[in-house]
Amino acid sequence: MDESENGDTVSPLHSKKFIAFLITELGSKALCVLILLTQPAASAMTLVMAITIVQGFVEAGYILGQASLDKFVHIASIARGNGEDPAKLLEKKEKKPETVAKPAG
Q1: Residue 94: its pLDDT value, please?
Q2: Helical segments of 1-105, H only
Q3: Three-class secondary structure of residue 2 per DSSP
Q4: 11 Cβ partners below 8 Å, 6+ apart?
Q5: pLDDT of residue 63
Q6: What span, in angstroms and rounded, lies between the C-alpha atoms of 62 and 18?
Q7: Can you tell me the distance from the alpha carbon of 27 to that of 57, in angstroms, rounded to the nearest whole number?
Q8: According to the model, what pLDDT value does residue 59 have?
Q9: What residues does 104 pair with on adjacent strands?
Q10: The pLDDT of residue 8
Q11: Distance between CA 99 and CA 92 in Å, rounded?
């Protein structure tokens, strides 16, 4: 759990994005169960496999999106303390000086 500015712990259930993600996950699981109960075995397995693959991509996208959001929020909190623009600070942090190896001799 994260901590808010005043020190209170914040549950993920306070996030609208997280709740929407949970609803889509539960809906897709319910859809899988419905398909398995109502369709013939061969077509049901094909549909469930397709739904599972799509769910994997959605979950990966959600996790990566949250990670990038957390990174930006962290940099923004640092920049707020320094009085800098968070976007410029992020660009500085991502740019790394290129090192070129000098030939020996």
Answers
A1: 67
A2: 16-38, 41-82, 86-94
A3: strand
A4: 1
A5: 82
A6: 9
A7: 16
A8: 84
A9: none
A10: 58
A11: 16
Contacting residues for 1 by C-beta, under 8 A, at least 6 apart: 9, 10, 11, 12
105 residues of the chain, pLDDT tens digit each: 455 555 556 777 777 878 888 888 888 888 888 888 888 888 788 888 888 888 889 888 888 888 888 888 888 888 777 766 666 766 776 666 555 555 665
Q: Which residue has the tokens 């799509």?
A: 54
Cα torsion 96, 98, 101, 102: sign: negative
Q: Which residue has the tokens 């920049």?
A: 79
* Direct distance between the N- and C-terminal alpha carbons of the chain, in angstroms, rounded to an integer: 55
DSSP letter (8 states) at residue 75? H
Q: Tokens 């990966």 sit at which residue?
A: 60
Encoded tokens for 78: 């640092």
Q: Domain boundaries in the chain?
A: 15-89
